[in-house]
Amino acid sequence: MGVLALLWGSTFLWIKLALQALSPVQVTLTRCLLGAGTLLLVCVTARQRLPRGRGVWGHVFMAAFWCNALPFALFSIGQQTVDSGVAGVLNATTPLWSFLLGIAVGAERAVHPLRLGGLLLGFGGVVVIFAPWQGTGHVGWAALAIVAAAASYAVGFAYMGRHLVGRGYATLSLSTAQLVAASVLTALCLPIGGTTPLHLRPASLAAVMILGVFATGITFHLTYRIIADEGATNAATVGYLLPVVSVGLGAVVLGEPFSLRIAIGMVIVLIGVGMTRLRGRGRPEPLRERAGTQEHGTPT
Questions:
Q1: Which of 72, 104, 218, 291 is the 20 to 30 A CA-CA neighbour of 23?
Q2: Regarding beta strands 283-284 and 278-279, do their DSSP bridges make them parallel or antiparallel, or are they unpaired?
Q3: Which residues, listed in sequence order, are joined to residue 279 by a DSSP beta bridge?
Q4: CB neighbours (10 Å) of residue 254?
Q5: What percent of the chain clears pLDDT 90, i.e. is strictly above it?
């Protein structure tokens, strides 16, 4: 989980640098293609097959939309005006959306008032970051796109945990298939914003490669592993560590300002997330076992 936090937390830096050369649609498609290509090579090396059957591929495409194509595009759109550090802070709301989704579908029953308070507190921190009283306008809408991406991750994690993990397919096979599906979905959007001329420079090209290979391919496979081992809600809690990485890299590499308001909002969000992870008298929520998950071997 620590490696995942470092890789995922750096994603916002690489997106910011990649946007200097590519449009949001181009960034989204490129990272999906490079991530899929990376995992396909790993599959060949490990002699893993991709899933077979219309049923499983239908679920793969649905999960790819919610967990890859849509949030990747929303992050790229939002980060045209939102700093990478702020993007990482807003992405930390994913566990809040996971908890809210669990309440909505009935997966969370007899919710303790402390956890509900954490949910309200966490979203209160988002309001502090948005600062609607300052009339931020365009930046506010961009930040809203990033919050929507975090919510999309929560839907995707839940869908993957319910319909794909624990069905007898190796997580490497599933993560590869999902990035292939996301590449197909994103390619359909090329006529909308993918024909913009490229402005490649060495730094931007390196950022695109790192974004695709490490921050998308390897990161997404690690995410699948954690969902398989510990459940979708626990996978979302990696968001605890993302703000620290994203804010640090944004300040050091890009010289992004980090205001007191953003810092206060980040602390409020993380405290809220922590409260939603407690049960009863302050006891942490137990890991959710997922029986039947196979890590090695794929059905033929």
A1: 218
A2: antiparallel
A3: 283
A4: 14
A5: 43
